[in-house]
Amino acid sequence: MAEVSSIHTLRIADQERKVRTQPLRAVRPRIASTIVLTCGDPKYPKILMGLRADRHDFVPSVYVFPGGGVDRADSYAPCLGNLSTRTKRILEAAYSSQKAQAVVLAAIRETREETGLMLGRVSDWKKNIRNDTWNEFRQARVTPDLSGIEVFGRAVTPPGRHRRYDTWFFIKHLGADTLPVSDSVELLNVGWFDLEEIDSLKTHRATDVMLAVLRNYLEYDILPPRIFYFRARHGTFRQDRFP
Q1: How many domains does the chain divide into?
Q2: CATH number of the structural domain spanning residue 86
Q3: pTM confidence score
Q4: How far apart are the C-alpha atoms of 37 and 119, rounded to whole Å?
């Protein structure tokens, strides 16, 4: 895989800039997941993105993929399908089997919350989970589906931020046609964009890095056994591989 570089400077919100002037305790990264949903030609796809609302105090007013933090309820949501052997092996190098699955399910839940899109198959389930979004799936008779989801990257927010995330990046191809999506309180202007259109959007440094990783990923005929791992060590950004 070619080395990835970013030409964008790190954008921070006014609220975060204010917090940085105050003494910070060490913030442990929260586990999070993001999913790149594609459609059309798998080699030249359209990608689902949306604009983070300017009310956010963490990277506001930039285009991102749907995603967010892993919640406890994600460990209890039922699902159909199985993770690929490759993705399962990579995630379980970091977590238990249950937690690894929860990381993927978090991306499915966040996709629903932020874009209105349910990634699943029609299937009844009676289990009542204390989470509004998972209960929307249950009421709609849709069970989240793990099939076809692959992990392709991981990025950790550098130290010194008032919020930090250890984010796993997944990808799933949905087929030839674009699916209807909608805005939410989290994301605005939600839509399908090709890579050239994305180049003209305002994005965050981490998104720029992962878009470069994605371009490399789309060229693979056989997926690599390790994933791109972007993190800061001793004040320096490093491009590693995991596991």
Answers
A1: 1
A2: 3.90.79.10
A3: 0.88
A4: 10
The answer to whether 185 touches 50, Cβ cutoff 8 Å, is no
Residue range 58-73: average pLDDT? 89
Residue 139 DSSP SS3 = helix
**What is the rounded average pLDDT of the residues 181-200?**
95
213 φ, ψ (degrees, to nearest 5): -60, -40
Residues 6+ apart with CB under 8 A from 213: 1, 4, 152, 153, 169, 228
Helices (H), 9-155: 14-20, 85-91, 97-115, 132-139
Taking each helix axis from N to C end, the angle separating 132-139 and 97-115, rounded to the nearest 10 degrees, works out to 80
Which of these, 230, 99, 79, lies nearest to 144 by C-alpha position? 79
Q: Which two tokens stand for residue 192?
A: 């399908």
User: Does 123 map to a domain?
Assistant: yes
Q: Which domain holds residue 59?
A: 14-20+28-234
Residue 236 pLDDT greater than 90, yes or no:
no
Classify residue 68: in a domain, yes or no: yes
Question: How far apart are the C-alpha atoms of 172 and 194, rounded to whole Å?
Answer: 15
Report the sign of the C-alpha dihedral through residues 46, 47, 48, 50, in that order: negative
- Distance in angstroms (rounded) separating the CA atoms of residues 80 and 102: 13
Q: Rg of the chain over CA atoms, in angstroms?
A: 17
In a domain, 6, yes or no: no
Find out whether 59 and 10 touch, Cβ atoms under 8 Å: no
The secondary structure element, H or E, covering residue 51 is strand 46-52
Measured in degrees and rounded to the nearest 5, phi and psi for residue 38 equal -120, 160
